[in-house]
Specification:
The structure holds three protein chains of three kinds.
Chain A: H1 6-25, H2 32-57, E1 60-63, E2 74-77, H3 79-106, H4 111-130, H5 134-153, H6 159-188, H7 193-203, H8 207-224, H9 233-239, H10 242-266, H11 270-275, H12 278-300, H13 305-324, H14 329-360, H15 371-374, H16 376-390, H17 396-411, H18 414-440, H19 457-475, H20 477-488
Antiparallel strand pairs in A: 1-2
Helix pairs in contact in A: 1-2, 1-4, 2-3, 3-4, 3-10, 3-14, 3-19, 3-20, 4-5, 4-10, 5-6, 5-10, 6-7, 6-8, 6-9, 8-10, 9-13, 10-13, 10-14, 12-13, 12-18, 13-14, 13-18, 14-16, 14-17, 14-19, 16-18, 16-19, 17-18, 17-19
Chain B: H1 2-10, H2 17-39, H3 48-65, H4 68-74, H5 77-100, H6 119-150
Chain C: H1 2-10, H2 12-30, H3 34-54, H4 68-74, H5 85-115, H6 120-128
Helix pairs in contact in C: 2-3, 3-5
The chains are: A mainly alpha, B mainly alpha, C mainly alpha.
């Protein structure tokens, strides 16, 4: 137990602001920007302080309400959760800068409702990375999911149908996770993660614990859209309002992967997961490899920029799940580094797509001709994000792919390495196709010189910051891995 | 009896006069019971969610027996939104207040510096404060769900 | 046959919850009307709630409401009282289920206003045109 409540203030700031936005936003729109940006800036600063504190003096556990564990709910602030907290607050801040503009364009008059759900989603994500209690995880998972359902349904056209599909599939996933928690509670009698980990080695080996693990994993896989459970993701993320997609696409799947790591290593032990059933472990790496290949192939068939990006998200999920289940420390380091890098890459690409959508109104490939002349700054940042997705040094994507490939070679899973290389090639094809359409074909509407119609400044600032961050974090991957990620590896690696 | 049936058939919304009178007499008692359930949450069966649903059910009863305009006359849409947000803010406000006064988050014993009752008594009383917030929020949500869905978003005529 | 029947009768609450869960699962996937899918999801979640609550029951135990002065005098006998923790957990799960149902119904209203129908194949037909 520590006397420092700083990480709770990180989570409470967006939550409080959500209700103030709902109350005050009805009166006038002028309250929205200062409230949201102020609270998210405070959260970012506070989370950086928390990360600094954890790196200097180690992690700590925190009991809510001063009830002793295992009766009370515990929160864990160690290297991994502090890193995720910083990631969530910074990505949310950058996405909000851009979402303020696009919500003004797409949802006039309803922005206070949009930002209420938005801020509760951010608070839910922050709570998810902090919790160390199995049932609390389910509650926070459902909070984030329900706000996401509402946010996606605010879109136009087919968005309510896509959101309903997401409701059905997402509820199946969450209920499976709840079933897994229920089985564990029946076997151990407690819900605290550390306590279950203490009791499990004595009773594991039966079918109930194996079923609990299977249910929890499948439930989380539905939520993170691992192929073939990914059916809800492309429609839901591409039809959502642009501001909602900016927040949800970089963060939700990555936080769910963090949850899988937390469930796997804080509840079950490395011995039970990997050594007792090696067939399960290689089966999952095979499934991840097949998922990467199929998702990349599906991305090739798309004609809309945002749908293509969502299929790339599904492939990236395959990278990380495979990296975690490779069962060696290089692969695990690669997977954790890739969580950070992939969130930033997806943020950069979606911010560029949002800026293009703000000016052009459509993201189909045949409308994107000549866009390099119209919006040079936006497309420069888009190119940096594209290079990072392909894995070109010195951008961040190269370093995490390097670790993942090394881990795959080390553990002998050649199919995973082949899938990674295939996916990099397909990403190169996809993004060079867009660069070709945007740069070399002249737009048919304006002949003569092209008008420069850049995106508004409020949308350009986070875009440029995220592009620069990709390069900075790429060059700084060494220090990042040594000081934070090596400590964040679960015990036993 | 026949007169009653004919009069009910002629009016467009609402139930017969017997049901309307019964509902009008019952609603205050239902609300009192809802408040009772909220207040007894930390001591016997009850609590914020259950009491909030009962409070919300009182307004839904009004909307079913009369029409939605009558129900909205007793609690307007703006008041509903205000109460809902206030309820959620009470919950989080109490939690943050405990942290501000030096304890852990949601550690009601730290609120002892405000009103000296003793930390153990405060733990029991803190739950009550939080339940009030939850009850208000749940009542607001139940009522607004029914009004929205029953009128297909238009908020003029109900079921 | 005897052994199978003995196993079923001994743990009948788990069999009931499995049957309910599969009914809900089939409704979510097999039915074509969107409202029926939603009801299937509700049945699915209710089955899980049933499993949790039924797992805390003990033979001949009383409900977990204690009188303060009795407890202060005699103490609490944990084996004579039903386990209250699953009840509390399932209260939260019921709230979650109600919220999801509310959001889904509001979304269904919007879908109905847009397409005029709630059957999945008719909606797909209208989208395909």
């Amino acid at each position: 137990m520590s006397a420092s409540n700083l990480h709770m203030y990180v989570m409470i700031a967006p939550l409080l602001t959500a209700f103030f936005v709902n109350l005050l936003g009805r009166r006038s729109r002028a309250w929205l920007a200062p409230l949201t940006l102020g609270s998210l800036a405070f959260s970012s600063l506070a989370s950086l302080v928390v990360l600094g504190r954890v790196v200097r003096s180690g992690g700590y556990r925190y009991t809510v309400g001063n009830w002793t564990p295992p009766f009370g709910i515990e929160l864990v602030v160690d290297h991994l959760s502090a890193l995720m907290l910083v990631l969530i607050s910074l990505v949310a801040l950058a996405a909000t800068l851009s979402a303020l503009k696009s919500a003004e364009q797409e949802l006039p008059g309803r922005e206070h409702l949009f930002f209420t759900l938005y801020l509760i989603l951010i608070a839910g994500l922050m709570g998810l990375v902090l919790t160390a209690d199995a049932f609390n995880l389910y509650v926070l998972l459902e909070i984030t999911s329900i706000t996401t359902y509402g946010l996606i349904a605010m879109g136009k056209g087919r968005a309510p149908l896509a959101s309903f599909n997401y409701i059905i599939m997402g509820s199946i996933g969450a209920c499976f996770y709840l079933l897994g928690v229920g089985y564990l509670y029946l076997m151990t009698g407690t819900l605290n993660m550390a306590d279950i980990a203490r009791i499990l080695p004595d009773i594991s080996g039966g079918a109930a614990v194996a079923t609990a693990l299977a249910f929890m994993l499948v439930g989380l896989w539905v939520k993170m859209a691992l192929f073939p459970l990914h059916g809800w993701l492309p429609s839901a993320y591409s039809l959502a309002p642009t501001g909602a997609a900016l927040l949800v696409a970089p963060l939700m799947t990555k936080v769910t992967i963090y949850l899988m790591v937390r469930v796997m290593f804080s509840i079950f032990s490395v011995d039970y997961l990997f050594l007792q059933n090696p067939l399960v472990q290689s089966g999952i790496v095979w499934a991840a490899a097949i998922g990467i290949v199929c998702a990349s192939a599906l991305a090739l068939a798309q004609r809309n920029l945002k749908r293509m990006l969502t299929y790339i998200i599904v492939a990236e999920v395959g990278y990380m799940v495979g990296g975690v289940w490779l069962a060696n420390s290089t692969g695990m380091t690669g997977a954790l580094l890739h969580i950070v890098n992939d969130a930033l890459m997806t943020l950069c690409l979606f911010l560029a797509a949002a800026a293009i959508y703000y000016r052009l109104g459509s993201l189909d490939f045949d409308r994107l001709q000549g866009i390099y002349r119209k919006m040079p700054v936006t497309m420069a940042a888009f190119t940096v994000g594209a290079f990072s997705m392909i894995g070109v040094p010195p951008t961040a994507g190269f370093f995490s792919k390097w670790y993942l490939i090394l881990g795959g070679i080390e553990s002998g899973h050649w199919e995973y390495v082949a899938a990674l290389l295939f996916s990099s090639l397909v990403n190169a094809v996809l993004f060079f196709r867009i660069i070709e359409i945007g740069y070399f074909f002249k737009s048919g509407e304006h002949h003569g010189h092209e008008l420069r119609e850049e995106a508004p400044l409020l949308m350009q600032v986070p875009l440029l910051i995220s592009a620069v961050a990709l390069i900075v974090i790429g060059l700084g991957s060494g220090p990042l891995v040594d000081s934070v990620i090596r400590m964040a590896l679960p015990g036993g690696f | 009896m026949k007169l009653l049936q004919e009069r009910t058939r002629k009016q467009k919304v609402g139930e017969s006069r017997i049901i309307r009178t019964a509902v009008r007499l019952l609603v205050p008692f239902v609300q009192l019971f809802g408040l009772y359930v909220i207040v007894h949450g930390h001591y016997s069966p009850g609590g914020g969610f259950q009491g909030g649903v009962i409070l919300g059910a009182s307004f839904i009863m009004l909307s079913l027996a009369f029409d939605q305009q009558t129900s909205m006359r007793f609690m307007s849409e703006r008041a509903n939104a205000l109460l809902g947000n206030l309820g959620a803010l009470i919950f989080i406000g109490v939690a943050a207040l405990c942290a501000v006064f030096g304890g852990l988050f949601l550690d009601y014993g730290a609120l002892d510096v405000l009103i000296p009752l003793g930390p153990v008594e405060w733990r029991s009383f803190g739950i009550f404060l939080v339940e009030v917030g939850v009850g208000l929020a749940v009542m607001s949500i139940m009522v607004s769900l029914f009004w929205d869905l029953g009128s297909a978003g238009r908020m003029d005529e109900g079921l | 046959m005897d052994m199978v029947l003995a196993v079923i009768v001994a743990k009948y609450n788990y069999w009931v919850y499995v049957v309910l869960m599969m009914i809900g699962f089939y409704a979510m996937i097999g039915k074509r009307n969107l409202v029926k899918k939603l009801i299937g999801m509700n049945i699915f979640q209710t089955a899980i709630i049933l499993m949790f609550v039924s797992a805390g029951v003990k033979h001949g135990a009383k409900i977990p409401i204690l009188d303060k002065y009795e407890v202060l005098k005699h103490g609490v006998d944990a084996t004579g009282v039903v386990n209250p923790l699953p009840h509390v957990l399932m209260l939260t799960a019921i709230v979650v289920a109600v919220s999801i149902t509310g959001v889904a119904l509001a979304i269904l209203l919007r879908i109905y206003r847009e397409y005029g129908t709630l059957e999945e194949d008719e909606i797909l037909e209208k989208l395909g045109k």
